[in-house]
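Notes from the 1:1 (GR / supervisor)

We went over the backlog. Supervisor wanted to see one worked example end to end before approving the batch request, so GR pasted a single chain during the call. The sequence is below; no edits were made to it. Supervisor asked that the structure be written out right there so they could see what the output format looks like.
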Amino acid sequence: MRNLILGAAATVAALGAVPAAADVKAGVDAWSRGDYATAIDQWRPLAIAGDADAQFNLAQAYKLGRGVTLDPALAESWFRKAALQGHVQAQDNYGLALFQANKKADALPWLEKSVARGEPRTQLVLGTMLFNGDAVPRDYPRAYALMSRASTSGLQSASQTLAQMDQYISPEDRQRGTALAERYAAQEKIARSGLSPASPPPISATGPARPAPQPAPRPVTPVARTTVPASSVSPAPVPPRAAPERAASQAATRPAPVTPPRLASAPKPAPKPVPKPAAKPVAGSGKWRIQLGAFRDRGNAETLWGKVKGRLGGAQPSYVAAGPVTRLQAGGFASRADATRACAASGQPCVIVAP
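Structure output shown during the call:
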């Protein structure tokens, strides 16, 4: 009987053992060379044994279909395993994977965690959900705040969506959203410094009291309404983290695996026709400006200006540095109406900048 017990124990140990040659870093090196099969061979036994970095990298491989057959469901499963161990990148990608799989209620708590850290793709996705009332109560100020943060990070699709939002939300909601975006920026800075955990605000940032009812706006349909931007999955895997950091991360960020109740979506209102501008814009010495985009490369901003300057009635460009991006603005408009006409004439997603 003793031999039988020892034999069973040896069998279990053999099944759980990781080959001595398996190494996350070796897999990363193989992946970088384009040798995806070798990378998978390195990561799979480690992932099965519970290594969060290997689980995340294996999820990336299934997401991209490199070295393995493309399988979003398996990618989601491996992202989840790593996310539950506190792997931050896995948490970001797991929330996005759930959203892509139309599991929006399940995605919500993971998106909130990523948003609190300032992850721009999740800010874009959650901001769009909040604006459209998609699986969450509609909340224009918070939607505007999250989209502003994603735009500031240089996510071009967020800048385009923000310009769409500007056409529909009230000045009061825009003002609340701008103030909330400043709070988010401060929270993200604290979260990055590691001084204290950032707690995301509740889904409704405006409270029960609202101004007089407004006509329901047409839902914005940005790039990320049903799909996550292409950058949501980085093709480059991550090297292993140091063991003490992983232990601390697991203790600090392990989420409770509780599925929240599914929230009802608000009905989608009928679209409104957009009136055509009555006259061509004329720029002079006015204080109103328009913003035509935010770019990581100033050269791209200058190229866009070369394309649109002839449509803006003598407006002068401004290249405003905002962290890692350059904002292209055009000024000299006497009123909001003139700036609005300039936006329409530019043919570009556009944001009006008040003096």
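Supervisor's comment: Residues 1-21, 195-236, 242-270, 272-278 have pLDDT under 50 and may be disordered.
Batch request approved.
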